[in-house]
Amino acid sequence: MERENSNYKMICTLTFGDIYPQIIIWLIVIFISLATTLALWSSTRQIYALATVGIILVLSLPFLLFAFVTTLLNNIEFAPIEEETAKSKSSSNRAKSNQKPAQATG
Q1: CB–CB of 21/64 below 8 Å?
Q2: Structural domain count of the chain
Q3: Range of 53's domain?
Q4: Residue 54 belongs to a domain
Q5: Which of 71, 86, 96 is nearest to 9 (CA)?
Q6: Is 86's pLDDT higher than 60?
Q7: Are 60 and 26 in contact (CB under 8 A)?
Q8: For residue 23, is it within any domain?
Q9: Which residues contact 9 (CB under 8 A, 6 or more apart)?
Q10: For residues 10 and 76, is the Cβ–Cβ distance under 8 A?
Q11: Rounded to 5 degrees, what angle do the CA atoms 52, 56, 61 make?
């Protein structure tokens, strides 16, 4: 479904530094939830402690996913391809399409 005369190329400029703060914040949330679990852990409140961790994880994961996806989408760029590069690319694609696939003999 790819067009042969595509005039743009996709460039991803995402670096590790873009997602470090998000990971650090989420790790802080995890440690706070574990501290809450330990504070609530007793012989009568174990269910509440486990429910607290579950609720915090379930509520924080969509926000983490949203942050990662939006960061990724903000770092995708479409740059125009120069005319000479586009012509050589299309001619190499045509040459590749004329070749026959290798067949095993035996």
Answers
A1: no
A2: 1
A3: 43-70
A4: yes
A5: 86
A6: no
A7: yes
A8: no
A9: 78, 79, 81
A10: yes
A11: 155
According to the model, what pLDDT value does residue 1 have?
Answer: 52
Is the four-CA dihedral 61, 63, 64, 66 of positive or negative sign? positive
Decide if 19 is inside a domain.
no
pLDDT in tens, 10-22: 898 988 888 888 8
Return the exposure string of 82-95: e unless at least 16 CB atoms fall within 10 Å of the residue's CB, then b: eeeebeeeeeeeee
Please state the rounded mean pLDDT for residues 86-96. 60
- Could you list the beta-strand ranges (E) of the chain: 8-12, 76-80
* Top-confidence residue, 17 or 105: 17
* 30 assigned to some structural domain: no
Rounded Cα distance between 29 and 24, Å, is: 9
Residue 37 CA to residue 50 CA, distance in Å, equals 7
